[in-house]
Specification:
The protein has 114 residues and is an alpha+beta fold. The protein is built from four helices and three strands. It is globular. The relative contact order is 0.18.
Length: 114
């Protein structure tokens, strides 16, 4: 499946997704539109896979993408070890209905906790 453009050029789209993934990993769940959540999900799962690996190279790759060093520390010390037993599917999308202003489909993107 090709990536979604989200009505943005490549630079602003990449910046928006980096911010979205950083916020998601910092808070554990975010409320956003369905299209943004579907675009954010594979990037967040890649970061969690890097955290499961846990070596220095993986940490530097995560630092190159995420915007906050504290989020990288949380990712590698808390989220990565918690997801150690899973082979994938670290996130879940829960539909919560349309947004009031423009009826955009809204969802909650959250980490799966077991």
């Amino acid at each position: 499946m090709p990536y979604q453009k989200l009505s943005r050029k490549s630079g602003p789209r990449r910046a928006m997704l980096r911010g979205l993934v950083t916020s998601f990993l910092e808070k554990g769940s975010i409320e956003t539109t369905a299209a943004r959540a579907k675009a954010c999900r594979p990037l967040a799962e890649k970061m969690i896979t890097l955290a499961k690996n846990g070596n220095l190279h993986a940490r530097r790759q995560a630092m190159a993408y995420l915007l906050n060093e504290d989020v990288v520390t949380t990712l590698f010390e808390k989220i990565g070890p918690k997801m150690e037993g899973r082979e994938g599917g670290y996130t879940r999308i829960i539909h919560i209905g349309p947004r009031r202003g423009d009826s955009a489909p809204m969802v909650i993107l959250e980490l799966v906790s077991e």
